[in-house]
Amino acid sequence: MFKFIKQYAETMTNAAIYPLVSLMIFFGFFVLLLVMVKKMRKGHIDHMSQIPLD
After folding, report:
1. How confident is the model over 18-33, as pLDDT tens digits?
2. 39: containing domain
3. What is the pTM of this model?
């Protein structure tokens, strides 16, 4: 299985773009998540933290 994937990847042209795109998507997701958490109100965080205990 790995041999097939390796052989397929070697025949692709411009194969260096795929890891770069996936890294940008991964990085962008966590930056967006960090921004959302930073903008969240303190009261909302307190309310959400109390939900499992209710």
Report:
1. 778 889 999 999 999 9
2. 2-53
3. 0.56
